[in-house]
Every structure is written in C-alpha cells, then in structure tokens.
C-alpha cells in the first residue's frame, strides 16, 4: 500500500513538473513577443492641439522627433506679449500604458507657467515639476490593442516606437 502511494505521488509530481515547465516555456516565448506601435510627430501634435482651447492662447504648435528627444515648439501669449518657446522632452520610463518624459531643456525662457499651459492637458498629458506623462490609452493605435503593457520604447526614424506586449 505504501508503495502504491509513493508511485502515485511520483507520477503526480512528474505531471506537475511537466505542466510547470510547459507554462514557463510559453511565458518565456510570450515575454519576447510584442507589437511595435509607431507614434509619429504628427500624432503627438494632434494630441496637443486637440487639448488646446482658445483661452490657452497657444499658437503654431509643432512637434518634431529628433535623436533621443521630442521637440515641442510654438508661441504662447501672455497679456499682450507673444512668447516663442521650445521644449525638449526625453522619454525616461514607462508604467502600464503610460510614458514618462523628462523636460531636458526649454528655450528661450524656462518658465513653469508655459510648461503647465502647454503640457498639462488631462487625460492625455499631465505635467508636474519637470516631468510629463503621456497616457497612450488615449492614442487610437495603442487603444486598439486590448491587452498588454509597454515593454520598451525607442526613438527611430523620426518616430517613437512603443512595444506593447504581455
């Protein structure tokens, strides 16, 4: 009787080990897989322009993706002055489907009120103390993928390539 329990126990352990190794193999294969979603400068510009209203007094918004950074420039009006600006954003990390950017540089005036006026546009964009977040669920291309999180991102060929995977 004792021998029967031991053999049954060994068979159950073997079956569980096979299942676990199978699941680990599937998981390893899925981790490397993902879909690259290209986000162009025009898409980012449309996101910004969509959130701007006439009271913001922001004009001539342009977005350009360069090597390692995203440049946002335009003109903001305060009282009667038209102030040109250029913001340089660098992607630093991601969580779930949100990208975090650090503001590397601002020209010609490094004024927080300009950053807030341009970059704090919930639900798409939020700005706090030198960093901006971009919720990619608000981008149609990313939202069309029902599952997955950002696995990696890179800037290549004037596009922000975001890899969505499980």
Characterise this structure:
It is a single chain. This protein has 166 residues and is of the alpha+beta class. It folds into two domains: 1-32; 35-165, no CATH class. It contains four helices and nine strands. The strands form two sheets. It has a six-stranded antiparallel beta sheet. Strands 1-9-8 form a three-stranded antiparallel beta sheet. A hairpin with a 2-residue loop joins strand 8 and strand 9 (159-165). The model has no long low-confidence stretch (mean pLDDT 79).
The portion of residues assigned to helices is 25-40%
Main sheet, how many strands, which sense, barrel?
6 strands, antiparallel
Provide the low-confidence segments as ranges. none
Anisotropy-based shape: elongated
* Computed CA radius of gyration, to the nearest angstrom: 24 Å
User: Which sequence of strands runs across the widest sheet?
Assistant: 2-3-4-5-7-6
Number of strands: 9
Number of helices: 4
Average pLDDT over all residues:
79
Number of domains: 2
Terminal CA distance reads 47 Å
Spell out the helices and strands N to C: HEHEEEEHEEHEE
Assembly state (oligomeric): single chain
Structural classification: alpha+beta
Beta-sheet strand percentage? Answer: 35-45%
Secondary structure layout:
Layout lengths: L1 H31 L2 E6 H11 L6 E9 L2 E10 L2 E15 L2 E10 L4 H8 L5 E4 L2 E5 L4 H4 L5 E8 L2 E7 L1
Antiparallel strand pairs: 1-9, 2-3, 3-4, 4-5, 5-7, 6-7, 8-9
């Amino acid at each position: 009787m004792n021998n029967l329990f031991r053999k049954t126990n060994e068979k159950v352990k073997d079956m569980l080990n096979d299942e676990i190794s199978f699941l680990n193999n599937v998981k390893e294969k899925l981790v490397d897989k993902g879909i690259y979603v290209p986000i162009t400068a025009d898409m980012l510009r449309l996101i910004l322009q969509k959130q701007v209203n006439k009271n913001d007094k922001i004009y001539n918004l342009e977005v350009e993706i360069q090597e390692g950074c995203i440049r946002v420039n335009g003109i903001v009006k305060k009282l009667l002055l038209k102030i040109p600006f250029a913001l340089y954003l660098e992607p630093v990390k991601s969580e779930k489907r949100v990208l975090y950017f650090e503001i590397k540089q601002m020209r010609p005036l490094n004024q927080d009120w300009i950053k807030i006026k341009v970059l704090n546009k919930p639900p798409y964009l939020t700005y706090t103390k030198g960093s901006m977040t971009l919720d990619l669920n608000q981008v149609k291309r990313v939202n069309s993928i029902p599952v997955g999180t950002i696995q990696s991102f890179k800037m290549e060929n004037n596009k922000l390539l975001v890899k969505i995977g499980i």
